Amino acid sequence: MYIGIDYGTKRVGLAVSDEGDRVAFPLEVASEKDALARASALAREREAKAFVIGESKDLSGRDNPVMARVRSFADALGRAAGTPIIFEPEFMTSAQASRVGRGEHPRNARKQGASAQEKLDASAAAVILQSFLDRMNSTGAHE
To answer: pLDDT of 70-83, one tens digit each?
Structure first.
């Protein structure tokens, strides 16, 4: 099982893969300050193989301004959880998540008052994770 992460400076979307590592599902959203602890706990609970974190680039292919914070978060998460980190290129994942409209409901979305943005953040994490799973499965690199 893999954990997908869409890092944001306010909210961090989390997604998980199915047992066969073929399909990604939005799970929940954590605040940026709680994301490290929540993702670490999730990795232990689900015995995650790796975290798949969106690698944010600008249109020129260079790290965008938030990527330094993403890398810092990824380093801390790798140390805290002892779980490998994989960066997956992301480009407009929030827009893709919004268009896909999969109908899955992350855990936070079921809470009263969950915002559309929270649902979108978890869905964006699923888009990132699905991209990785598709590439992994198409190349035969499946563990």
So the answer is: 999 999 999 999 99
Domains defined along the chain, listed by start: 2-138 (3.30.420.140)
- Any long-range contacts for 17-24 (C-beta under 8 Å, 24+ apart)? 17/129, 17/133, 21/49, 21/133, 21/136, 21/137, 21/142, 21/143, 22/133, 22/137, 23/130, 23/133, 24/125, 24/126, 24/127, 24/129, 24/130, 24/133
Residue-wise pLDDT for 94-107, tens only, equals 445 444 444 444 44
- Read off the pTM: 0.81
